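FAQ: What does a ligand-bound record look like?

Like this one, built around zinc ion:
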Amino acid sequence: MSCDELRDAWLRHGDLPPGGAEHIASCASCQADAAALRALAPALRAYAAPEPPPTLGRAVLRAAAPLLAAHAAPVPRPAWRALAVALLPLPLVLVADWFLVRGAHTLLSGILPDALSLYLAGSYAVLLATLLGLTYAAVPLLAARQLRASPEEHHA
Ligand SMILES: [Zn+2]
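The answer part, i.e. the structure of the complex:
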């Protein structure tokens, strides 16, 4: 237990925390402050924190309204347009991937057993599909991020 932990627990709970007496016996700093802490702890416990008035929340919001309005960020527009534009070349990409996977399977079939070349081509197709899915999943996020960026960032 550190000196700060001891003092914090003592003042917060009004009594010495477990192990506090041993700490005070071995710590000159806490021994010097023990009398003051012993007098202060019950006095602090006697005063309860005042209840906030029920109108405090509304008053704080009313006072902060101009500041919140000045710093409000516009809600980003949906990124559907960017996603639609990104989907335009998708058929071409799928056809290119199909020929790539088929070509890889044909090439591998010449040098490897058929089952192994099919497995490798299938794994390659799964990898391509995963990368394509991740890419298209990122398009709306990236578009929304670009729409959120301030105009100064575009020119910098
Ligand atoms: Zn101490």
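Follow-up question: can I read anything off the structure? Yes, for example: The longest helix spans residues 114-148.
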